[in-house]
Amino acid sequence: MVSAFMLFLGCEISNFDLQENPNFLTPESADPEYLLNEIQYQFQYFMGLMILNTDDVMRYEALTDNYRDVVSVDVLDAEWESYFEALNNSRTIEKLAAEDESLLFHNAINKLLMGYLSVTMVDYVGKMPYTEAVNPSEYPNPRLDDGDDIYRSVLADIDQALLDIEASNFNFSTDLFYNSDKDKWKAFANTLKLRILVQTKLASSQLGIANVAAEINKLMEGDLIDTPTEDFQYIYSTVIEPESRHRYFQRAYVSDIGQYMGNYFMYMLKDSKSMADPRLRYYLYRQADEDPYSIPPYSTCQNESNVDYCYVGDYYRGLDHGESRTGYGDNSKRAVYGIYPGGGTFDEDQFLRASTTSTHLEGAGILPLLTSSFVKFLMAEAALTLGTNGDPAVLLEEAIRDSMQKVLGFGNVSSDFEATETDVDTYVSEVMTNYGNAASDAEKLDIIITEYYLAAYGNSVEAYNAYRRTGYPSNMQEPINGDTSFPRSFPYSSNAVEINRFIKQKQNSERVFWDTNPEGFIK
What Pfam families is this protein classified in (predicted)? Predict the structure, then answer.
């Protein structure tokens, strides 16, 4: 598999979905095992980059520029190319499977992975080439499909994948997600469908769904990802060549970090409740125990009325959302990514430079893509807003506890500073008390999505979608520079616009089909 990836990385791929590409494999020349390896590689590559794209938009990291400059016309160039490379391979597998029943399971995995990528791309850009894509001989300039049409196609593919899994008699030998466990793939398929239904609940009629609550209830009667052992995640390794370590680890531990963590996110973990979040030392690592108020930008921001935090204390150095004062040489003193999910270091008050400290996992982190915790947050949201089966309070508590179990058990930390069961119980008790005291369903949903936001660290795609869908967390820090151009979607790849006459560049204010909330809804 590594050799296949190396072969792929050595290819020059520059024509996207639009023109003849000599690197695209045809059914006559393709090995389905190799193709599905490629799709798995492209899947984690694409999703990893998409997560980085919204980490700062969603305040996990600090936005140190304007939204328009950060979410610029070339931001999705690599992701666009990766997506259509995967789509080409996907359709080749479909053609092979149509003539070979031994490839039913291959094609089911293919459809599910490609479906996840496709809805993610729609969630970011809206309309895009799909039906006519990767068919350059017939469609050298593929037209754009509406986002809801692509979603409908993905839902149909999920249903077909479930049938194919059930009928398949052969395994896929290099399954990087579930090791050819068909029951787990079926749980993932059902869960992906549930995620889509909750995501599009404000526009379900566009998908031809008359009663979205009833459809969700049907899914809840079947098998879903409901325990951490079923979590859909990509696991990185410690391999350096080819680079196989988590991107967070590469950013902060291989060299000095170039980003600041977001003060809002650190405040929410450290100070928004009567106790610190038990995940704090797992999520974040502090490199220095020096008070930063004597140096810029902290020496200049602490008394400014438009700055909300400046510095949140306890050596958690970051920046406010929209703070542009950077470049003061404090890279080795900022808070950085911790052991979860990037495979870095658990914070034991070492206060050592991340690039020189001994790390627990050496970059063998994870991409938490669709976890039992995420699923229960979605189910809690559906129960509260759509009246689906289940008690939203019970689901909220289960979601938080699943997140705690996953994070606190990550990396087999053994330390005097590790969180305890009592810490978790105290935290959960406070959240549930706040939930019970909430005066309205809107306040309850705010609590659900806020806890979802905190649990989704390492997957800002989920936070970005939930924020546009619900407007929560309601206390999300607004940019201190007054920027009101929050990207309701991302621009098309500049390269794609240049070579496809049907793609016209769009404004970031345009909303994807399921985002029916008004302008100015979020900032």
Answer: SusD-like_2
Nearest to residue 514, comparing CAs of 269, 52, 154? Answer: 154
Distance of alpha carbon 165 from alpha carbon 167, whole angstroms: 5
Torsion of CA 210, 213, 216, 217, to 10 degrees: -120
Q: Tell me: the pLDDT tens digits for 299-318?
A: 999 889 999 999 999 999 99
What are the φ and ψ backbone dihedral angles of 303, each rounded to 5 degrees? -110, 15
Q: Which two tokens stand for residue 277?
A: 């979040």
Give the residue extent of every domain in the chain. Answer: 32-226, 247-486
Q: What is the DSSP letter of 176?
A: T
Q: How far is CA 147 from CA 124, 411, 426, 436, in A?
A: 10, 39, 43, 38
Which amino acid, one-letter code, is at 290? E
Is 345 in contact with 339 (CB distance < 8 Å)?
A: yes
Asked if residues 491 and 505 have their Cβ atoms less than 8 Å apart, the reply is yes
Q: Which amino acid is at 281?
A: R
List average pLDDT for each run of 10 residues in the chain, which is 523 residues long.
Answer: 37 42 52 92 97 98 95 96 97 94 95 98 98 96 98 98 94 92 97 98 96 97 95 97 95 92 98 98 97 90 93 97 92 96 97 88 97 98 98 98 98 96 98 98 98 98 98 98 96 97 96 96 95
On whether the CB atoms of residues 335 and 266 are closer than 8 A, the answer is yes
DSSP 252: I
Cis ω for the linkage preceding 129 (within 30 of 0):
no
- Cα distance from N-terminal residue to C-terminal residue, the chain: 43
Cβ atoms of 114 and 86 closer than 8 Å = yes
Question: Looking at domain 247-486, does it have CATH number 3.40.50.720?
Answer: no
Q: Fold for domain 32-226?
A: 1.25.40
Rounded Cα distance between 140 and 133, Å, is 9
Token pair recorded at residue 411: 């990396």
- Reference 191, options 406, 371, 443; nearest CA is 371
